[in-house]
Design brief:
By secondary structure, the chain is mainly alpha-helical. Helix content is 76%, strand content 0%. The longest helix has 39 residues. The two termini are 64 Å apart.
């Protein structure tokens, strides 16, 4: 009886010891896995985030310019198409009343051709603006939602871009001979105003095309930025994958 008790006690001790060993091994495995996961997902620095944001804007600008600087890039894109200048909408109506619908159509087409032509020169201007862009808190923009980086760029560089872009637009207006279609319309309108005593108009086409072309580009850049935010396939560089990939891991 005594031997049987000793044997049972020995077996119980062996089972308990084995169970403890299994638990220890399991705990070690969990700790090892946790450590590995931590090291494979390093935290981002603000410098990395800023680099990723600038890269996203550069990609967005390149894609946007390639889409808008071609024939019909503005004209056939209803989201950014330049309409008849609102300040001169009376000119359009008067011209239509005078049977100049063909001239109105040619003018609106050429207006968009000027934007398309000017946009060809936009890439280096925007690239320089992005290069010199100062961001103190990249995380705020990264986590700001759709179009946040584009909005930051627009808010902080538009004035400089207008100054740089304006001469390009003026050259484009000359290249596509926009004023040849504008002058007959404004001349007819002002002649009618001289008779009726109404106010003559002479809107600044250069300013109008400049502002609308830049506005259209920013609209397209925001679309490209949002693609990078949402579509892993649009993250074409390592820094884009790292920075914007962090958004989808949350």
């Amino acid at each position: 009886m005594k031997k049987t008790f000793i044997l049972l006690l020995s077996l119980s001790s062996m089972i308990l010891f084995t169970a403890c060993e299994v638990l220890n091994e399991a705990a070690s495995l969990v700790n090892s896995t946790t450590t590995t996961n931590t090291t494979t997902q390093p935290s981002l620095t603000n410098a990395e985030v800023i680099s990723g944001l600038k890269e996203a804007l550069n990609v967005g600008i390149k894609n946007s310019v390639s889409l808008t600087s071609v024939t019909d890039g503005f004209l056939k894109n209803t989201a950014i198409r330049l309409p008849f200048p609102p300040d001169a909408i009376k000119v359009k109506q008067k011209a239509l009343d005078l049977g100049l619908s063909g001239q109105v159509e040619k003018f609106e087409t050429t207006l968009n051709r000027a934007a398309e032509e000017a946009t060809k020169e936009a890439l280096p201007i925007f690239a320089e603006a992005i290069k010199n862009m100062s961001i103190s808190d990249g995380f705020a923009i990264l986590n700001g939602g759709d179009g946040s980086a584009t909005k930051f760029l627009r808010d902080n560089t538009t004035q400089k871009l207008v100054a740089a872009f304006s001469p390009k637009v003026q050259a484009a207006i000359s290249t596509v001979k926009l004023t040849e279609y504008w002058e007959p319309l404004i001349t007819k309108y002002n002649a009618a105003m001289a008779i009726s005593g109404g106010q003559k108009l002479n809107p600044d086409l250069n300013q109008y095309v400049t502002e609308k072309a830049i506005e259209g580009l920013f609209y397209m850049v925001a679309i490209e930025e949002n693609k990078i935010r949402k579509d892993p396939m649009a993250r074409v560089t390592d820094i884009l994958q790292k920075v914007f990939g962090s958004l989808t891991q949350r």
